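Researcher: Going back to the complex we discussed earlier. I've cleaned up the inputs and rechecked each line, so this should be the final set. Can you rerun the prediction on the complete assembly and write out the structure?
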Amino acid sequence: MSTRFVVNGTPREIDAPPNTPVLWVLRDELHLTGTKFGCGIGSCGACTIHLDGQAIRSCSVPLSAVAGKRVTTIEGLSPGGEHPLQRAWVDEDVAQCGYCQPGQIMSAAALLAEHPRPTDAQIDAAMQGNLCRCGTYQRIHRAIHRAAGSSAPATPSGGARRP
Amino acid sequence: MTAPHGERPAISRRDFVRWGSLGGAALVLGVSPSGEIIAPRRKGRAADLAPNQWITIDAAGAVTIVAARSEMGQGVRTALPMIAAEELGADWHRVVVRQARPGVDFPDTNTSGSSSIPDMWHELRRAAAAAREMLISAAAAEWRVDRATCVVDGHAVIHPPTQRHLGFGSLAAAAAALPVPGDPPLKPSSAYRLLGTRVPRVDAPAIVTGRAIYGLDAKPPGTAVGVVARPPQHGAKVARWNAEAARRVPGVIDVMQISTGVAVLADRTWAAIRGRDALQMEWTEQANVLPSEKDYREALEAALGRGRTARREGGDVDAALASADRRMEGTYSMPFQAHAAIEPLNCYADVREDRCEIRVGTQSPSAALERVAEVLGIPRERITIDVALLGGGFGRRIERDYIVEAVEVSRAARRPVQVVWTREDDMRHDRYNPAQANRIIAGLDASGMPVAWRHQTADYHLTMFGDYDPSFDPASSGDPWGGFDTPYAFPALDVTLALLESPVPTGAWRAVSYPAAVFARECFLDEVAHATGRDPAALRLALIPSPGMFRGSSGQRPNGDRLRRVLTLAAERAGWGAPLPATRDGRRLGRGIACNEYHRGAMVAQVADVSVGAAGDLRVERIVCAVDCGRVINLAGVEGQVESGIAWALSALDTEIGFDRGRTRQSNFSDYPVLRHTEMPAVEVHVVSNDFGPFGVGEPPVPPVIPAVMNAVFAATGRRIRHLPLRPRDLAL
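Model: Rerun complete. Updated structure for the full complex:
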């Protein structure tokens, strides 16, 4: 059974079981490996993409749910890596191992599309679902402010441990 | 007190893999500073200057430098080439980085123990200096001038008297015809321009565009994927299995038993995962396992008094304790922890009759080469291992289990495969950081100063590095880390280690056994300070000898003074001594301090500010860190590693791997909740640079974090937390 949808502006027709997570369709069928596998349960955010402009966890969304819709992956975020977030990520030297960063950037891009000048609280809320085991959160927070042209405090506003 | 033992004890955990190996030098997956992925290329075009395996300069002036350590976020693919580029006098923007392929040219590519920078420091400088001297000789010959009148600057050789200059590219062919100097002079550190500056990591442009290639991305399109059913109970074996349902999953190609379990092979990852989940497995389990995590802690604490002597200094501790004016004792423990790198384990292998190709993110390329040759019984030169980027390593990717497994599956299936671990596989079959217990017993004199110090550690052995050795001598390896190499001087010191055989797989975990021992040592010192009315920073300064000269094979250095310096610096910058308000917005406030010396090299001190809510919710507000890792290579890298090490340790405040009769309880980030965005404190990093070292800095920032935070928690709440994981009820009003 084939499913039609648009990936990074290009119409695609994929012949795969409709319950296949979009993550594996992108990686195994379309060879778009910038979208990463981390947990498979929507808990780490490494697989974040945009579905009709909204940030979603592609590991937990089946192929059937994207039929007729527009998907954007990290490869399609900007033509040459020139999205303000991608530039800010380099300027703030955010990445360490870098594996989670495509997902971090896609979450941040959806945030900026909705809130071009996000508050700290809006950044916190948008980014809480993206894990980084290297602990680059402080720089991620700064890079989002930098890309938005908003004033960047030194750090994330938070520091809260789980209650 | 000066350290009586070698600076780098022959520790099997740190350098367990120093075996020579054979093989070619080439590689895939290079990324230039401009972010371009470069094609595999072998050195040796006639016009290139390639005086050794490390450096190639082509006629266009492009300088290719090989990184022979694995990149897992610690920044080696930037820092190692920086060392060579500095020595060469190259323009950093014209440097291309290639990843070493383990083999005869690069016999040691193994990456662990924060040792990449110190291990490569001399060799890379010598390699680059040889190239530089050849370029100078070529230019001097061209100009017919004395080579002593030539200098190198900005990717060119310059003759200042006549203001002539020739770029590296135009000199490469002529230089290549010259003999390679055996002992080239090294640039004085006063002339460094690149080292010590902030250089963005070379892989950043590829990372932010999704083009960076990690192990999971390195399989050729169309490669079959294997997912393996492994025993839920550690040490259990396959009894019976039924693959009927698995074979009915569309896309499943084959099912086969291998040494670790049963592998399902499919044409796509998702089909392989579903096929594996459809397997019906029966296991032969072990009866003799400790039932739960509580039993592991009890076993450790029961063993504390039965340790072997690791170090004795000064007078008789028993006598000193007996005659002390006051005696204090504290027992601390930390639970098992997982690595939980965001990229789950995976490996691509293509085993043929007489050769094998592997693509993998590994910390141990050279050790893997050795092991695969052993498993397949083919010569090492018939095996290629291409090292992809690692989506986190933290010690887990030292182990070669997941590489051997992929080799087994490819051999059995007679086709190339990529074995993929799910998150659940990765967490349930980790090589855990073992639980550890520490007890410290101190005797104090009338003024409250410690005169006797007994540090007992009980730990599980690390299965990653071999079988349990009941006759293990802790002194031979400087164990227990953090106790053996305590930076404090006491009139009488006694350190013991009880090493137990681990019933579950264990391994290296960022900073290995330091965190638990330093948690105990630094918190107990805080207990002593509070009990005797001393300032915790001042007590430390009184116990750290000055200059505390350490004499090791690489020279001597005033380690006491170096630690005192970072302790003082962190305290100053954090406003130590200025009283905090007791509460703010209804939250109790506290500040704590801790420090550590990492293998006689890097010195780290940290001051943590915390607030605690009525419900016991802890917020780490800020950590000020001062670090002395000797000469700084990449300042941005040092700062990043401090932030990263702090985040790593903070995750371990309230995570835990537990066991139910030998089965790992946790399975994913839902029940192993690592640090998230809003939980990151403000981190301030102050770097002290000097001519010592250089020392690695991937692990040193980790050990002081938990004690600094727990000392701050005590200041805020009056509660002394001696056992992790921390639970809100521990701090609730």
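Model: Worth noting: The first strand of chain A starts at residue 2 and ends at 7.
Researcher: Good, that matches what I expected from the previous run.
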